[in-house]
Structures are given as structure tokens and as C-alpha cells.
């Protein structure tokens, strides 16, 4: 059964930074409904499988399996995350903000949006109503 959070979701920021060891530092920030801000940081550790990283969320005390599905380093990253032990799955489309704002305004390419939609459908997300 899908859970609809669309009405409560806010645009946030994510900074994904590779480390010298090829792990991934992830810093997130967004707004709560009351206008206050929240921040969260994780260190995703690389695995032997290319594009797969794992991290533990200190905030929710859970382990996460993160896969980089597709990436164009100066434009976007399509990332799919599963939370171990909980039926939580998250698919994110991160857009490289400087490129996005300076060169394309606020519109994403139809091909990129279709790739995101198709991947979401292929991984079990219900179609948009």
C-alpha cells in the first residue's frame, strides 16, 4: 500500500561529496512544516560492488543499502536506497544545482524525468494518479 507524503514534502538540499577513500559524505538539510530546519549527515562506505554503498543512520538507527543507478557527474545522480529490516525504499533524483540553475532554468529534461519515472515504476512505486 503506497503512503502519500506529497502534501508534507518540502524541497531540501543534499550535498554528496566523495572522500579520498571513495566513500561518500552525505549532508542533508530541509525545512519542517513549522519552518524550522533539520540537518542530517551520513558517511556511506563503498562496497566491493560498483555503485553500491552502505550507511547507518544515526537519527533512525537503521542500516541502508544505497545504489547509484545512473549518474552524469555534472548534471544528476539517480540513487535508490533500501532500509534494512524496514520496508522503506527511497528513490531520489539529485540534480547538480549549479548546472541546473545556470544552464537549464527550472526545467528538467523530459528524458531524465522519464528515466526517473520508469525506474520508479520498475522498482515497485505505483503510477502517479
From TrEMBL:
Domain Lipocalin/cytosolic fatty-acid binding: 3-126
UniProt xrefs under Pfam families: Lipocalin
GO molecular function: small molecule binding
InterPro entries linked: Calycin, Lipocalin, Lipocln_cytosolic_FA-bd_dom
Membership in a protein family: Belongs to the calycin superfamily. Lipocalin family.
UniProt name for this protein: Lipocalin/cytosolic fatty-acid binding domain-containing protein
Organism: Salmo trutta (Brown trout)
Amino acid at each position: 500500500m503506497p503512503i502519500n507524503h506529497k502534501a508534507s514534502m518540502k524541497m531540501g538540499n543534499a550535498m554528496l561529496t566523495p572522500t579520498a577513500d571513495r566513500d561518500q559524505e552525505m549532508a542533508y538539510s530541509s525545512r519542517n512544516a513549522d519552518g524550522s530546519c533539520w540537518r542530517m549527515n551520513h558517511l556511506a562506505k563503498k562496497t566491493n560492488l560498483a555503485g553500491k554503498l552502505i550507511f547507518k543512520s544515526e537519527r533512525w538507527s537503521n542500516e541502508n543499502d544505497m545504489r547509484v543507478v545512473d549518474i552524469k557527474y555534472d548534471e544528476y545522480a539517480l540513487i535508490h536506497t533500501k532500509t534494512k529490516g524496514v520496508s522503506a525504499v527511497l528513490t531520489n533524483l539529485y540534480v547538480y544545482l549549479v548546472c541546473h540553475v545556470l544552464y537549464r532554468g527550472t526545467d528538467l529534461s523530459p528524458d531524465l524525468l522519464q528515466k526517473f519515472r520508469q525506474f520508479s515504476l520498475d522498482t515497485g512505486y505505483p503510477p502517479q494518479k
